Amino acid sequence: MNGTVTYTFGKATPYVMLPGGSSDYMAGAVNRALGQVVSASSSSGTDIAANAVDGNLNTKWTPTGQESWFEIDFGRETTANRAVLSEVGNHIGSYAIEYWNGTEWQAAYSGSAVGNQATNAFPEFRSSKVRLHILSSSQAPSIAEFQLYADRNLALAAKASASSNDNNDFSYSSYLVGEAAGNFTYRYDVQASRAMDGAMGSYWSASRESNGAWLQAEFKDIVKIDRVVLSEEGNNVSSFQLQKWDGKSWSTVHEGTTIGSLREIDMKKFSATKIRLLIAASDADPKIREFKIYEKGNALAGSLMWSPDSRISATNVGGDEPSLGLDPCEPRIHDRLSGL
């Protein structure tokens, strides 16, 4: 870019994108479906598919059949983990939000009625294409808006700790020794932070704690939480609790049984500086691949829209570490700028 750009970050300051030459601005979470290239199984008259991603609730897409779909093509991989649907009327009986995995369409979420508004949270995915597949409807449905968002995983910026980590004969408190083919051994890291690194290929493992082990996320400031997504290596956990720290003691906000490969937990929103996963019972030492923490509507860093004449006044919505991201759909911008 020509000239000098100065970035100023204020604690818990909403990011604001100011279009060049205009006093209008856009703040908060960015709808990643807005204005994208779309196609549909069919359209009725002027009620075309593009109307469902134009940001206007007074326009709509109406197909000619009761089972139908419309597809968004981002042109490159994009992250999403929440959708907001708005229907004109209340005719839809069942639907699925699907993404292209490179070979076939895969369901991210399946639902029933939509009505005036339905908010659907699901495990995040990255894909170049997303579609709304209406499976059944009492008559030809009309979709006013289909919005897609990427809520921020708060655990990525949290300090991770645990009751214990698995260890090896060399007294590495955070490592586990494994045997590989040939005459060598390898060590891989199983410390608490591996359950909060956003990578499914790593995990935290407790040490000789089948019952009572815990995994904790601590934040620099108070955060709001209403969703947790857990992933386990194996299927050993049979009882667990999610607990929040109120400044003096722990209190339980959710109790569950098994975790397995995926457990999604939506809760009434609460505020805390710490949250922990307490493993009450497990058949063996628990191994947690991911402990993801969300406030629905708290945008993922990296969702600012960009145009050549835009000005950025601030970023960082309630986060601890300032970061700036340019919209991944913009083909000229490929990298997230963070820690500025």
Automatic annotation (TrEMBL):
Pfam families: F5_F8_type_C (PF00754). Gene3D superfamilies: Galactose-binding domain-like (2.60.120.260). InterPro entries: FA58C, Galactose-bd-like_sf. Residues 22-151 form the F5/8 type C domain. This is Discoidin domain-containing protein. It comes from Cohnella ginsengisoli.
